[in-house]
Every structure is written in C-alpha cells, then in structure tokens.
Amino acid sequence: MEIYSKNWLAMDGVWFQSVERKCGMDEAMYHDAQAWKRFTVIEAQRIKSFLGLPERAGVEGLAQALRLRFYANLNEDRIEQDGNTLLYSAVHCRVQTARERKGMPLHPCKPVGLIEYEGFAKTIDDRFRCECLSCYPEVTDSTCCCKWKFILQV
C-alpha cells in the first residue's frame, strides 16, 4: 500500500511540476483544482463503498474514510472528534517536505485543499461544512502543516 501511495503522489507531483515549470504556479494551481474537484469525489466514493458506509455516514464515517485516503499512508496526521466536529491535521506533509528539499517554494495548498477536503467530506456525508484553520500560505498553527475543521450540520 505504501509503494502505491508513493507512486500516486509522485505522479501527482510530476504533472503539477511540469505545468508549474512551463506555465507558472497560477496555471498549475488551476489544473490542480480541476483535477481535485473530480478525484476527491472518486476517492471518497470508493472508500465509502469499500467501508460499506451509509449515505450519511456522519463524523465517525468521515474519520474512518480519512484514514484510508492515499495521503494517510504517507503523511503523519491526527484526527480529533468532538460531537459533530472533526479536526484533521496533517502533522508532516510529504509534498511540502519534498519541495523544500528541492529548493522549491512551498505549495500554496489552501485553495485546492478547500476543494479537496470539502468535496471529500460532502461525498461521505452531504451535511458537512469544511473550514481551513491553517494551511500554507496562511499558516496559523505551527504544530502542523495544515489543519481542517469539519462540522456536521444536523
């Protein structure tokens, strides 16, 4: 599973960096957003089906599904549940670490992250609302690379 996750992430980075080098960050981010709009729903649907989750799987269902994402095999993360709220933190991010190692600027994840995480959560349960608490370029929590809040609206 780890090798498949690494291969998936490498492919994601290779195409992104190709567009970034040729057309710039804005163009790469546009295509990244378009890809994530579709991929995050596909990934969530497949995980939801695999786990046999109900249509509205709630906070516990989202926690289970997040643990099976490709990223979960590569990044150190933390999931905290409190009633109708789930906090998801990527403690260490392989993408940002790789960009730093290569002397590249950090990836401005927040705009695409909003698409990715909200799309994923809403596929697991359409009642979720997602908020970004901390994500580059707007880092407000130095204990993690990014932090997302999911609120189940009942």
Write the layout of secondary structure elements.
Layout: H1 2-23, H2 25-51, H3 58-66, E1 76-82, E2 85-92, H4 94-101, H5 110-124, E3 128-135, E4 146-152
Antiparallel strand pairs: 1-2, 2-4, 3-4
Give an account of the 3D structure.
This protein has 154 residues and is an alpha+beta fold. The chain has five helices and four strands; from the N terminus they run H-H-H-E-E-H-H-E-E. Strand 1 and strand 2 (85-92) form a beta hairpin. Helix 2 (25-51) runs parallel beside helix 5.
Offer a concise description of the structure:
The chain is an alpha+beta fold and 154 residues long. The chain has helices at 2-23, 25-51, 58-66, 94-101, 110-124, and strands at residues 76-82, 85-92, 128-135, 146-152.
Characteristics of this structure?
4 strands; 154 residues; alpha+beta
What is the H/E string?
A: HHHEEHHEE
The major beta sheet can be summarized as: 4 strands, antiparallel
What's the helical proportion of residues?
Answer: 40-55%
Number of strands: 4
What fraction of residues sit in β-strands? 15-25%
What coarse outline follows from CA principal-axis ratios?
globular
Count of helices? 5
Strand order of the largest sheet: 1-2-4-3
Mean pLDDT figure: 95
Gap between N and C termini: 35 Å
Class based on secondary structure composition and strand pairing: alpha+beta
Rg measurement, Å: 15 Å
Low-pLDDT segments, ≥5 res: none
